[in-house]
Structures are given as C-alpha cells and as structure tokens.
Predict the structure.
Amino acid sequence: MSVNLDVQLSRTNKIYHEEEALRGIVTVNCSTETKHDGIFLTMEGVVNLQLSNKNVGIFEAFYNSVKPIQLLNLQLELAPAGKLPAGRTDFSFEFPLVCRKEPRILYETYHGVFVNINYMLRCEIRRSFLAKSVQKQQEFMIQYKPKEKPLGNEVHFTISPETLQKSAKERISIPRFLITGRLDTTECCLTKPLMGHVTLQHTEVPIRSIDIQLVRVETCGCAEGYSRDATEIQNIQIAEGNVCPKLQIPIYMIFPRLFTCPTLLTKNFKVEFELNLVILFQDDYLVTENFEIILNRCN
C-alpha cells in the first residue's frame, strides 16, 4: 500500500506579493483505499536569525533573545478523519498572504548566512500510530511589488596612496599609482545590473588583477547588543595582468537571485550590501575601495 502526496501552486515561478492569495492543489494518489486521521495544510513564514560562532561568547547573556520571527502561521484542514479512495484525489486550497501581527509586513524571501527569510507550505496526512504519516513541503517566494523609484546620482571615485587610510610613514612604502572610475549609482535596482567603469591612469608597479566583490552585511541582535558579519556573495574579475593605462574597464554586475534582497533595516536585524573594488599589484600589495550600496525592487 503506497500513498503519494504532492503540493502544486497556481504559479509555476512560485513568486507572490503581499496581500495576494496563495492558491494551489494538493494531490493524493493511493494504491488502495486508505484510512487517515485528517489531512492538514500549514503555511509558515519565518525569519531565522543566527549569531556567528565568534560572537556566541560575547552574547551568551541575550542569546535566547534572538528568536525566530514568525510572519505567517495558518493551518487549513483539507479533509477530516476518514478514508481516501484508491486512485487520485485533489484538494484545492487558498491562503491570504497577510501578516496580521508585528511587524505587519511580509519581508522578501532571502537566503543568507545569519539571516534567512523563508516561506513554506507543509501538507500532512495524519495516520494511526502503526502507519507512518505522510508529509510534503513546498517552498514559495515573497517579493515586494516593484515601485517607481528614482535612482541615485553617479558616483565618481579616485584611488591613490593619498586617499588610503594609512599613516604618513606607511604611505612612503606604497607604490605610486592613480586609479579613477565611476559607478552609475549606489542606489541600485535588483533586476538591473550595476554598471560603471575603472581607469588606470598610471602606476609604478604592474597590476596583477582587478576584481569587484559583492558583500552582504548581516546584523542580528536586540537592545543588549548585536552581531554584525560580512560575507562575500560573488566575486567578478574585470581585469587580469598588467592593465593598459587610460583604458576604461567596464563594471557590469548582475545581482544573484535569493542571495540578495532589498536593503532591509528592522529593530531586530539588518541586511545591507557593499561593493568592494579590489586591486592586486604584482608585488602582492592589495588595495580595496569600499562602497555602500542600497538595493531596491523597482521597475
């Protein structure tokens, strides 16, 4: 005797917006008539927060304060206790995507290291003690509705020994160089690439490579303290070997889905993003220029 359970959503891309209805069908296939103690479907939305290992000792006093934040928790009884006939049985369902308690907003789906925002459907066919219950999970994603948002102005930058945060004594040992560039904006749309360019004006020591790094900065905590950790999402090499002076090197970065989300600032956690421009010289001297960027979901 076998029971197969499947949960199908009305949208193939599984993307929904707040205040919409989550619709779909639960399909049960039984080889023979099957007794059960009820069929239940649960919709959950949770923000899971985790402190990094390096901060656990510091924050043991308030460790229990960093608890999951529940955004959605609704249960629907698809069928009372009884019997399922042999063959296929379909149950349609519909859930309202509304957060009815604090923070009264459904955050966008995000898969991070220390912050995870997940939305899940769990279906269970409950059976007697001797027969194992059957369960099935189906993840769906929440996205903010795109808004018309004017992007910020161009950001021009210059990198040289004088712009680095070094002491006067340290600057003497730094090779002489001058790098200029531009970012089209630091207020970026998630669905559009981040663009700009870098130009090497001159250098005493040849360059080995130039990279751009997208970094997420996740902050978890409460009134007693917080844990702030930066992790690299992606690294793109835009130049390799000695760069020709006066040549504009294009910057073109597409934001990866799920590992990025609109910049999020709440009282319990934050998800922020930064861009690093990394220049590595032939003598292994490394120069990094950091830019804070704001991500939005816009048209």
Remarks:
- The mean pLDDT is 88.
